[in-house]
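Backbone shapes recur. Consider a single case.
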Amino acid sequence: MLQTIVDIQRDIYLAFAEHIKTFANGGGWTAFLAFLPMGIVFGAVHALTPGHSKAVLATYLTGSSAGMTRGLTVSIALSVTHVTMAVLIALFSLPLVSVMLGSAGSAPLLEDVSRGLLGVIGAWMLWSALFRPPHFHGEGEHVAVGFMAGLIPCPLTLFVM
């Protein structure tokens, strides 16, 4: 299944490349609008691959008494934050990352930091579950969880940007 998802991503990415070339060569807004929906499809398929804080989100929702509305709010907060962070990182640091860490799309330092943050979040969640007394969650906590989980960057997103 994972290989199928990767193959679909590759096909979309290759189609993207052609549309981007057309747009870059003066294809106008029609060329841009032709590949814009492909970005949405690519993002949806891309989100199915490992990572993207799905485990953090699933653990939070499973361990809380969140209903459908709260779960949807957490998911939207995570998605918006993740995409925003990817765009900001690409815009402000990709040239520096490319020069400092190797070729474009390969950022081992960012990948290691991301893995480390996931480990720290997981350890904190385990410690909290085992040793902290029961507590009540505030109304805005679910949005904060989605926001924090969305801060974890994705190396493939950097490559696509």
The helical segments are 2-46, 54-63, 68-101, 108-131, 141-150, 155-160. Residues 52-161 form one domain. The chain has a mean pLDDT of 74. The chain is about 80% helix and 0% strand.
